[in-house]
Write a structure and sequence with these properties.
Distance between the termini of chain C: 70 Å
Largest sheet of chain C: 7 strands, mixed
Number of strands of chain B: 0
Structural class of chain C: alpha+beta
Largest interface: B-C, 64 and 65 residues
Radius of gyration of chain C: 28 Å
Number of helices of chain B: 13
Shape of chain C: globular
Strand content of chain C: 15-25%
Chains: A mainly alpha, B mainly alpha, C alpha+beta
Structural class of chain B: mainly alpha
Radius of gyration of chain B: 25 Å
Number of helices of chain C: 18
Largest sheet of chain B: none
Helix content of chain B: over 70%
Oligomer: heterotrimer
Chain lengths: 293, 325, 578
């Protein structure tokens, strides 16, 4: 295990994209951690309810507020840091949930075969085909108001099909292997076989998919917040963009308009690069060939 | 024969899926806590008025009854009346659909063409500066946040430079002028279309570029390319006549498969640019709890996605007999 | 040298295409620049598209703005005195106490299709509303038992009982043409749901009695209204004002965002933006030499409401203490950036006749410390205790913590629901500030922004809330809403009594005021109602924002300022091209 990890790491290190991606992610993670600092220094830096006694309108960057203030006088930098925290939370939770769902369903479908397989895969088809953003939008009308966790749940519910297909394929091929036969003969229950024997072998593939799930979850939440369907009590980057757009400051306040968008784009980029690099680690065929053409 | 059975089977599946979606959404909406009547915050509307309206809109009947009425109307071509416009939903969608199709298809075609073109060049110069530049460029533009990009473009080109209108699809001066002919109006629309088109293009061409590039790299390893080289053909000819057409196939299929992603982008673009299309109508009807319209818009989009997936699958099956099973 | 092969042909095709597009773009932009706009057409920017031009369906303000230029009522308000003056009517209504009959004489007038406007149209309108129970108008006509039309220019309305609102609310209903609606009414009667049929009718060519009539509506982009040559007011002097309209028409351009509209205003593509300018834009527009800003008051109320059905909000002392804590100064100066006025009563001060100046004014003139002390005093005397009292033994003000109810139990967390920040930054911010002010007193308040639809659902329908901050952007000038908001019979699902206020004494006076036909008597009742309400504070009035509107100089002159802004009927009738 350790040897293969080290081998993977050395391949990873050679990949420039992967390194950049990792560095960016670390920066964002630091941002998320630092988000707790400003309100602790002074309550006026609270991203949601922080009120500066001297300022209640949109102001450019200053010593007190390094990125300026928004239309209600709240500190933009604290909002940006809080947004990083939300982005990670949303991205990782949604990704983990969808992976858990996708892996379970994929393994079950692959292992059970026949009717269960067809049913689950048809369901997957149906869900995969829908434009997630619009579906979540529609659901937000139904619920009236979405809290951030409901949004995470719904995103996860619509993202498992992609994973499940691949896992199913893996399961199908694993099913034929001798060690599974042996377990069956030994009298292991289906449940045990699936989760104890098959799962460890499909997990690495699942983790690979996680990086892509994270980006799509972050973008979906940002787009939802942007359109006005997010959780009004949460400060996310998408919500910041919505505020700057709807309150009509987008022409006057580049210091407010630019940072959240740059952050969303960069975090997406970094996960993407990381994913591609991990792709190369796990799939030997994709490794960079010799320089000669 | 085989192919026909496959098509028939897939079509039935599509129809079933469509109705399942319709039912699920319909039920969800009827159970929804918010109703459009309570959104009317008019001090002049008393609760009796509100109750009368609810009865008139048919919101007081049991769900089963409402559902059957809906299905019956669906098959007779009546998709309900919008709560907010008071017009038949069909009229509203009919009005908006062409605008979306115009913007959407133009952007996809443009991104696909440019993506293929640049991907081809990038693969040819693999490992060199051109390739890295293009790949990085594609990666960066593809991960830009679409609404934010749209806002930036409006700010820079619409506001600061004033080269393009900052929203909408037409200017009323042109359309009200009785002397303005078709050409003038078409130009007006195109003028308004530049920024939204550019936004969509920028976001999407990167994906096609990357797919084309890796596809070309695979194709170039094939034997027939070796043969062509051995024959002594020019490199350019090999690239453009032999490799590219075959390498472009995965791009074509990926256009179909990434439709859902593009539709999301389309809805966002329409909203930011106030382009009067279906995506934007869906967003605004949802925020106003206008269920019939929201449901119909979504079903329209879902229908389009299902049908195009069907087409892609059939095309695949036609081209590759192994897939039919 | 080989002639062009396929690839070269393709690439040259591509170049031709690019060249063609570029040419078209360039010529297109030139073309658009050179298309001159007709000199005498007013261009107004709207934030949203009107949903409908069906006058009975028009509930959103955009539809009503446009419909209001076409369908006219019998009486309108004078811009300066706000008194009701005859418009389609020829003179003030005559009231006969014995028979409870109002007699209205109608001015000679024509519809936009050339036919005469007669008493038949007026009677038809009223009967139509009653028969089909048209929402919003039904409650203003359902007490009219009989309508007579002795001649073409006289209408007599017989009421079942005395109703004070008849003149101010019923006689301001828009009148429709009998011919336009008769056929539709017949069709509707045959269906199972006649009202639905009527409301869903798309009126493509509204028949107008006003200064303008619809010429073209391109969905999603603009509406074009042309001058109505049959307008009864043309050339007449009403209330000392000589009416036009002097402009050839109005184009309403639809912009999705305020940004786009204000940009157009600056560029000169529109002459006026028919919506309030948010404080963020005002400085920029004020400095612009081509733009003129108008400031007017609104008949509006933004307030904090409590759910007096449940504890601890049942306790009037608690509400009074909260009212004392509100820092009005902060709200007006900082949140509204000075563009607002303090509201002491439910009725805005701009409504001078009905506004009662003599209501309790909690916390007025006190600074923050004094307010905390006063609120502390009110609560302490009512039996509340604290873990850490906000005022310690020496009389110094500290951060209070852990307030306890008179029965000894600690007060539970409660929420202040507000609209989302982008929907209304002022209300959202008021919520945030109330949270902070209340917490200084040790009260566990939490401001919670909620999607607007969901907010209304919880407050109006489910009555499941603690407190909220909402507002009415345009209250009618007749104060009957005061009765509606607080009378106990309106405490039901979707009813207007959202707080659950229940006071039999108030109910009695409110009902009396509804049937007081003598204006002065009614005023004294309305004043008493205000005193009761502000004494009990089920709602804490917060502010009434000022309306700032921007107009482009140099094209038109003659904007009439009035409560509610310059986009009023008088402006449209009096605007002259420069």
């Amino acid at each position: 295990m350790l040897a293969s990890f080290l081998e993977g790491w050395s391949i990873f290190r050679q990949n420039l994209l992967g390194k950049i991606g990792l560095v960016l992610l670390i920066i964002f993670a630091l941002m998320a951690v630092c988000s707790y600092i400003p309100p602790w220094i002074n309550p006026m830096y609270n991203p949601m309810t922080g009120v500066d006694p001297a300022i209640t309108s949109c102001t450019p960057p200053s010593l007190r507020h390094w990125l300026g203030t928004d239309f209600m006088g709240r500190d933009i930098l604290s909002q940006l840091l809080a947004g990083a925290r939300i982005a990670f939370m949303v991205g990782i939770s949604a990704a983990v949930m969808s992976i858990v769902l996708g892996v379970s369903i994929g393994m079950t479908a692959g292992y059970m075969g026949r009717f269960v397989d067809t049913l689950l895969m048809r369901l997957a088809d149906m869900i995969m085909v829908m434009p997630t953003l619009l579906v979540v939008l529609l659901l937000s009308a139904v619920f009236g108001q979405l809290s951030i966790w409901t949004i995470v749940l719904i995103i996860a519910l619509f993202r498992w099909p992609g994973v499940s297909r691949i896992i199913r394929g893996q399961t199908l091929s694993l099913k034929q292997r001798p060690f599974i036969e042996a377990a069956k003969v030994a009298g292991a229950s289906h449940f045990r076989i699936i989760f104890v024997h098959i799962m460890p072998n499909v997990l690495p593939l699942a983790f690979l998919f996680m990086t892509f799930r994270v980006t799509s979850a972050i973008i979906t939440e940002a787009a939802l917040a942007f359109l006005g369907f997010g959780d009004p009590g949460t400060v996310s980057w998408g919500m910041m963009l919505q505020w700057v757009w709807k309150t009509g400051h987008m022409f006057q306040a580049p210091y407010w308009l630019l940072p959240p968008g740059i952050c969303i784009s960069l975090i997406t980029l970094s996960f993407y690069m990381l994913g591609r690099a991990m792709d190369e680690v796990l799939d030997p065929r994709l490794r960079k060939e010799d320089q000669t053409d | 024969m085989e192919l026909r059975r496959y098509i028939a089977r897939r079509m039935i599946q599509v129809i079933i899926i469509f109705f399942v979606i319709l039912t699920v959404l319909f039920l969800l909406f009827r159970w929804a806590p918010g109703d459009p009547v309570s959104m009317m915050v008019d001090p002049d509307m008393t609760q009796e008025d509100a109750e009368i309206l609810i009865v008139q809109l048919g919101l007081d009947q049991p769900i089963g009854v409402q559902y059957f009425i809906y299905i019956k109307n669906f098959f007779t071509g009546h998709f309900g009346f919008s709560f907010h416009y008071g017009e038949p939903v069909v009229d509203i969608i009919w009005n908006r659909l062409p605008n979306t199709i115009l913007l959407f298809t133009t952007s996809i075609i443009l991104s696909a063409f440019v993506g293929v073109f640049l991907g081809k060049i990038a693969s040819w110069h693999k490992g060199k500066k051109t390739d890295s530049l293009m790949t990085i460029g594609a990666l960066v533009t593809h991960t830009l946040f679409l609404p934010w990009l749209a806002l930036i473009l409006i700010w820079v080109f619409g506001y600061k430079f004033g080269w393009f209108p900052i929203n909408g699809m037409i200017s009323e001066e042109v359309w009200l002028d009785p002397e303005a002919g078709f050409i003038a109006r078409a130009i007006d629309v195109m003028y308004h279309m530049v920024l939204p088109l550019f936004t969509l293009f920028l976001i999407h061409f990167g994906a096609y570029l990357l797919i084309m590039r890796s596809s070309m790299l695979e194709t170039l390893k094939e034997d027939y390319i070796l043969t062509a080289r051995a024959k002594g053909l020019e490199e350019k000819v090999i690239r453009d006549h032999h490799a590219a057409p075959n390498a472009a196939l995965p791009v074509v299929t990926s256009v179909g498969l990434s439709l859902a992603f593009s539709i999301n982008g389309g809805a966002l673009t329409e909203t930011v640019f106030t382009w009067p299309g279906i995506g934007r109508e869906l967003v605004s009807s949802v925020s106003q709890n206008d269920y019939p319209l929201a449901l119909a818009c979504f079903l329209m989009i879902a229908g389009v996605v299902l049908v195009s997936n069907l087409v892609v699958d059939v095309l695949y099956a036609y081209l590759d007999p192994r897939i039919r099973y | 040298m080989p002639c062009m092969n396929a690839k070269q042909r393709r690439s040259s095709c591509r170049w031709v295409l690019i060249l063609a597009c570029a040419t078209m773009l360039i010529t297109g932009s030139l073309f658009i620049a050179s298309t001159a706009s007709a000199a005498n057409i007013l261009k107004m920017g709207l934030l949203q598209e009107p949903k409908t031009l069906n006058v009975w369906r028009a509930s959103d303000r955009w539809s009503r703005k446009v419909v209001g230029l076409m369908y006219q009522p019998l009486y309108v308000r004078d811009p300066e005195t706000l008194k009701l003056i005859p418009w389609l009517a020829a003179e003030p209504p005559q009231f006969d106490e014995k028979t409870l009959c109002y007699t209205v004489k109608i001015r000679p007038a024509k519809w936009s299709d050339g036919t005469e406007l007669t008493s038949e149209d007026v009677a038809f309108t009223a009967r139509f509303i009653n028969e089909f129970k048209v929402p919003r108008y039904r409650s203003k006509w359902n007490f009219v038992k009989k309508i007579e039309t002795p001649d073409k220019h006289t209408v007599k309305f017989y009421l079942k009982e005395p109703k004070a609102i008849f003149v101010s609310r019923s006689l301001t209903t828009p009148i429709v043409q009998k011919k336009e609606w008769t056929k539709l009414a017949e069709e509707a009667r045959k269906t199972k749901k006649p009202l639905k049929r009527l409301l869903n009718e798309k009126i493509k060519r509204p028949v107008s009695s006003g200064p303008f009539v619809l010429k073209e509506w391109r969905q999603g982009t603009f509406l074009y209204l042309q001058k109505n040559k049959y307008f009864f007011g043309t050339g007449k002097k009403i209330q000392g004002r000589l009416l036009g309209p002097y402009i050839d028409g109005v184009i309403f351009k639809i912009y999705g965002t305020s940004d786009a509209s204000i940009l157009s205003l600056k560029k000169g593509s529109i002459d006026m933006f028919w919506w309030g300018i948010q404080p963020g834009y005002i400085e920029d527009l004020r400095a612009n030499p081509d733009i003129e800003l108008f400031q007017n008051e609104k008949s509006a109320l933004y307030y904090m409401g409590f759910n007096v059905r449940k504890a601890p909000f049942k306790d009037v002392n608690l509400r009074r203490a909260f009212a004392t804590l509100v820092d009005e100064d902060f709200i007006i100066k900082r949140i509204l950036q000075g563009y607002g006025i303090r509201m002491y009563s439910i009725v805005p001060p701009g409504n001078a006749f009905w506004y009662c100046p003599d209501v309790p004014r909690y916390g007025e003139g006190l600074d923050r410390e004094a307010r905390i002390k006063k609120a502390f005093g009110i609560l302490r005397d009512a039996g509340y205790t604290w873990e850490v009292p906000p005022v310690d033994e020496s009389g110094k003000v500290v951060n209070g913590e852990g307030i306890k109810l008179p029965d000894g139990k600690p007060m539970e967390k409660f929420t202040i629901l507000t609209p989302p920040a982008d929907y209304d930054p002022h209300r959202a911010m008021c919520g945030m500030m109330m949270q902070e002010w209340l917490r200084m007193l040790g009260v566990p308040a939490y401001s919670k922004p909620m999607a607007f639809g969901a907010l209304l659902q919880q407050v109006k329908v489910r009555h499941d809330f603690d407190s909220f901050i909402l507002g009415y952007g345009s209250l009618s000038l007749d104060p009957d809403y005061l009765r509606n908001f607080f009378i106990s019979t309106n405490d039901k699902k979707r009813g207007w009594n959202m707080s659950g206020y229940n006071n039999p004494h108030f109910d009695k006076i409110a009902n009396e005021s509804a049937s007081a036909m003598n204006r002065d008597k009614r005023r004294s009742l309305i004043w008493e109602m205000q005193k009761i309400i502000i004494g009990d504070v089920p709602y804490i009035p917060l502010y009434d924002p000022k309306l700032i509107e921007a107009v482009r100089k140099g094209r038109f002159t003659g904007w009439v300022q009035m409560l509610g802004g310059v986009g009023n009927l008088w402006s449209f009738c009096q605007l002259k091209p420069m």
